[in-house]
User: Which sequence fits this backbone?
């Protein structure tokens, strides 16, 4: 992989549209976390945008990564500042958010500490832990572990909630609206990407077009809900800096404190997401054909992630993480300019200031997001296959076959057992260690690294 160069800022109309596309790609997941955790949607947008801007400069403007709300922290956030804490801005919520924000900042500090450790140890030693037989299947897991959840969260759950048989996906009320909306969104992205001329403008905006066509279709069949937008408009709630909204959003500052229970629940998760960060940066390197682990260095990408998370905690937003959705956008458009991610982050900051914008975007049906996610997450997994092919992994070698097989089995197997757990609380089988939920991706990554280190490559030695 070649070294990455830092592009100059200088935007065309094409770049602006590309940046909007990146913002829309991350929007669904970034907004979903604060909704479920009883946190401010606008602050989540602001912290994601500001965090991405800081990441952009810390990584020397070389890494096209967008940072958004981390799902890994969601169970802990729900327990610390969930619905039981009361409405946003209430006294009980301010107290809960005060201790949660401090814990999130400490989690970001763990990232920062890890970044200095990696710098001291050397990136080459870190890279040895991630040969193609580890990176390839881990990237596949990143995409495939998200697919079942996007089906449930954005499509099935919209009409299956409360049903006795969740296996009857096509029989619930409103099922056809959800499935056709998702299908038309996905089909638009596929057709535009397949038939647009190679160097045409349409070729680089298939995801954005998918959102537009899917939204128009959803509007026509009547599944777009404008109630929240209308209520915000009637109440003249336009920007978060209006006195009442500002007080409700940032009133927790007077209650910030160190709380042992919040720290124990949130901070250890940073160790898990550290492994996810390494996997995501490896995926980005594969997609962009530039070794970001070396240039600018995984220590800097981790430092950027940590600083962004600390800023998010200080603002009252969820912890940040690198976003696979945007990696998939890079893979589809083949436009790897980090400056476009920077502009997308600026858009997120700008629109995050407008509470009315958050309500407008919230009118996008989740089925539209689900349809786009089907393609996006599939592209991530396809990049994992590419890593295996480019790395010329020999599957006649017993060690290679065993490492890849176990990573896929653990990652996909454990991931499928929590299909609906994050959202509905049913059919849940979570992996918990002293109250901390461990993601299947982190477990699969650790197991793969260990297996690659301890299993001897007898066939290679015999060949010599």
Assistant:
């Amino acid at each position: 992989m070649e070294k990455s160069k830092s592009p100059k800022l200088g935007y065309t109309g094409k770049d602006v549209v590309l940046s909007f596309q990146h913002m829309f790609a991350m929007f669904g997941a970034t907004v979903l976390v604060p909704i479920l955790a009883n946190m401010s949607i606008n602050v989540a947008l602001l912290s994601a945008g500001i965090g991405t801007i800081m990441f952009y400069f810390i990584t020397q403007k070389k890494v096209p990564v967008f940072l958004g709300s981390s799902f890994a922290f969601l169970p802990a956030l729900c327990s610390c500042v969930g619905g039981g804490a009361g409405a946003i801005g209430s006294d009980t919520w301010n107290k809960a958010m005060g201790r949660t924000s401090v814990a999130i900042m400490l989690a970001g500090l763990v990232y920062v500490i890890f970044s200095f450790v990696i710098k001291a140890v050397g990136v080459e030693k870190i890279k040895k832990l991630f040969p193609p037989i580890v990176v390839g299947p881990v990237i596949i897991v990143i995409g495939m572990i998200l697919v079942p959840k996007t089906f449930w969260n954005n499509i099935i759950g919209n009409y299956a909630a409360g049903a006795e048989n969740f296996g009857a996906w096509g029989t619930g009320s409103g099922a056809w609206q959800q499935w056709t909306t998702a299908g038309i969104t996905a089909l638009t992205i596929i057709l535009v990407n397949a038939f647009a001329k190679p160097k045409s403008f349409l070729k680089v905006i298939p995801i954005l077009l998918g959102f537009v066509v899917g939204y128009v279709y959803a509007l026509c069949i009547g599944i777009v809900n404008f109630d929240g937008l209308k209520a915000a408009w009637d109440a003249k709630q336009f920007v978060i800096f209006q006195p009442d909204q500002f007080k409700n959003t940032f009133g927790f500052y007077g209650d910030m404190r160190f709380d042992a229970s919040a720290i124990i629940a949130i901070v250890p998760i940073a160790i898990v997401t550290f492994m996810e960060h390494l996997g995501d940066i490896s995926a980005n390197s594969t997609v962009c054909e530039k070794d970001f682990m070396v240039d600018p260095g995984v220590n800097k990408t981790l430092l950027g992630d940590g600083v962004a998370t600390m800023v998010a905690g200080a603002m009252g937003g969820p912890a940040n993480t690198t976003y696979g959705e945007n990696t998939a956008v890079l893979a589809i458009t083949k436009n790897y300019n980090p400056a476009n991610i920077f502009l997308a982050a600026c858009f997120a900051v700008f629109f995050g200031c407008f509470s009315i914008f958050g309500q407008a975007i919230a009118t996008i049906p989740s089925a539209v997001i689900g349809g786009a996610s089907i393609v996006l997450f599939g592209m991530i997994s396809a990049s994992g296959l590419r890593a295996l092919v480019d790395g010329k992994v020999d599957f006649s070698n017993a060690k290679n076959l065993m490492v890849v097989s176990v990573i896929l089995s653990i990652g996909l197997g454990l991931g499928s057992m929590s299909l609906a757990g994050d959202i509905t609380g049913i059919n849940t089988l979570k992996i918990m260690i002293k109250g901390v939920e461990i993601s299947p991706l982190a477990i699969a990554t650790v197991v793969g690294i260990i297996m690659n280190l301890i299993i001897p490559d007898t066939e290679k030695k015999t060949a010599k």
Q: What stands out?
A: Residues 16-158+224-365+379-393 form one domain. The radius of gyration is 22 Å. The chain has a mean pLDDT of 80.
